[in-house]
Amino acid sequence: MRHPSRLLLVVGAVLALLAAGCAAGPGDRERPAPGTGPTAGGPPSGTPRAPWRPAPGTAWQWQLSGRLDPAVDVPVYDIDGFDHPASAVADLHRRGRRVICYLSTGAWEDFRPDAARFPASVLGKGNGWEGERWLDIRRTDVLEPLMAARLDMCRAKGFDAVEPDNMDGYANDTGFPLTAGDQLRYNRLVARLAHARGMSVALKNDLDQIPELVGDFDFAVNEQCAQYDECDALRPFLDAGKAVLHVEYELPTREFCPSARRTGMSSMLKEYDLGVWRRPC
Predict the structure, then answer these.
(1) Are 200 and 162 spatial neighbours (Cβ–Cβ below 8 Å)?
(2) What are the UniProt keywords, alphabetically (predicted)?
(3) Residue among 167, 192, 169 at smallest CA distance from 179
(4) Cα(74)–Cα(57) distance, rounded to whole angstroms?
(5) Could you report how far apart the first and last alpha carbons of the chain are, in Å?
(6) Is residue 61 within a helix (H) or strand (E), and if so which, with residue range?
(7) Which among 78, 195, 243, 274 could bridge 219 via Cys, Cβ 3.0 to 4.6 Å?
(8) The CATH number of the domain where 257 resides is what?
(9) Using one digit for the tens of pLDDT, what is the confidence trace for 226-251?
(10) Domain count, the chain
(11) Strands 60-63 and 52-54
């Protein structure tokens, strides 16, 4: 889902090596994961590279619909992992961008090429988007290999990071008796799978579990925390020197940009379709 569920109640492996050695663009404010850093010649063959991590205040573009416009002058792009080939990621890298792979990890989508691999037993209620249903995240025996394959795709295409979506099923009417503990275990599994592939990973929304998960995730992606007066919940990420990539859809920029600039959030106004248009703070 591309905004909080409360509003819904309305291919390549060579390019992965290219991405790993790609130099950061002039405005790309990044920091290595704690205890890691660049080493001469890069990591040994078969060793995951140290994940890139965006710093607070890093400007970004989030485009999940329409023809990809690679010319927005920002250091970070967040694009759909299935919809874009390795060549699109490589082009963004040549332009000095880091690229985040958008995936749905908590909901099934009938339009994805791997949709038939999900057994009916793990499909729950609709999540408010056409063709999408919540997943039974307790079934890691089924979901772990499916999500690992999706993350392998992101790595093969050369993505630097992952934005896993629908990471708060336990707080929604999924059709399964999911608990907060189930969600913590699943979210940490997704984070481990991304890190094992040398990619950083974002915590998408799931505000109530930030205190438990901030150490497992490299940055946050949030929708509409200003509209719902929830931005303080994201403070643990900022305090840890981790970016909060934030969008609003309905508020004018004057109502959230002053606070965003003050706290170091990477905020912008977007339309719900998450096309090219953006109005950054």
Answers:
(1) yes
(2) Signal
(3) 169
(4) 11
(5) 24
(6) strand 60-63
(7) 243
(8) 3.20.20.70
(9) 999 999 999 999 999 999 999 999 99
(10) 1
(11) unpaired
